[in-house]
Amino acid sequence: MPIVVNLDVMMARRKMSLTELSEKIGITMANLSILKSGKAKAIRFSTLEEICRILECQPADILEFMSDEEYMKLMRKV
Amino acid sequence: MNRILQIILGIIILQHLFALVMILSFLPAQILNFPKATKSFNYPKGQQKFESTMSIGDLKLSQTMEYDTLAGKGVRSLYAGLPNISTDLKINGRPYVIGSDGNPIEARWTGNGNVLEVPVSAERYRSLLMLSFGIMLVYLIVLVYMMVELFRFSRKAGRQEFFEPDNRKRLRLFGTFMILTALVRYLTNTSTGWLLHQITGTHGYRHHAPSSGGSFPAALVAGLLLFIIASAFDKGQYLQKEQDLTI
Questions:
Q1: What is the spatial distance between Cα B33 and Cα B14, in angstroms, rounded to a whole number?
Q2: Rounded Cα–Cα distance for residues B5 and B13 (Å)
Q3: pLDDT in tens, B126-169
Q4: Which chain B residues contact residue A47 at CB under 8 A?
Q5: Element spanning B82, H or E
Q6: In this complex, do B247 and A27 lie within 8 Å of one another by their Cβ atoms?
Q7: What ipTM was predicted for this assembly?
Q8: Is pTM beyond 0.80 here?
Q9: B37 at the A interface (CB within 8 A)?
Q10: What is the spatial distance between Cα B27 and Cα B17, in angstroms, rounded to a whole number?
């Protein structure tokens, strides 16, 4: 799916750990890891709202649409 | 509620395990010690007539032991019986069957006149015992396995873990078991005349449908329903995965 979750980038910018974020948002570390690793199938508006509020950012800072080619290139890099 | 179901299932499992142990300890000894001669055995003193019967599904195996006062020894008669059979030949109201040599053999009605019992030789009786032992053993092992799986299923249900691949497989397994059991039951119920001929080697009788027979077995419908529920579990499993991966 060519929608990339840039949660790790925003967390690095805000210098926030996964544990701290999960505690502040109120979701489990396991679920946050699923989201961060891009394995999630969907994200609730409430979760997105909480993430944006804690990380002081816009949804577009966390979610990014890529074309199939760009996505494949990124996957190859990873 | 789930705990009560688990306790009931546990009791049923133990009951079947007990039956399994009983069969394993009792029947092989009976088969191995079964005397080849039918007319000489240690007759229990003080008894004029002694009967022992064993039922495996519809098949009824009976031993009648009587004391022959003229010969001064016990006489054992062995019978194999099946329900829903009527004989072509009746003399003084008593049923007769035709032996393999063409001579009539007196049979008897038991079970309120529902089961026709035909005399069989000791060798045939022994073979039937062995066959019954095998069938009962396999059936009980399968039944115990089914009960254990049902117990596991109820435990998962108690933890609200419904839509899992294991449960879907279990439902299909229960469905298959119910359909097969219903089919075997239906086939044996509708062909008892043929079965009695295969078992005893005699003829001169025919199967007649029981008053409640001929209807489609409810277990077959239940088995098919379980397959439909298993298909619903496929969809449920997909939705569950989607739900689990929605953050």
A1: 29
A2: 12
A3: 888 888 888 888 888 888 888 888 888 888 888 888 888 888 89
A4: 247
A5: strand B73-83
A6: yes
A7: 0.75
A8: no
A9: no
A10: 15
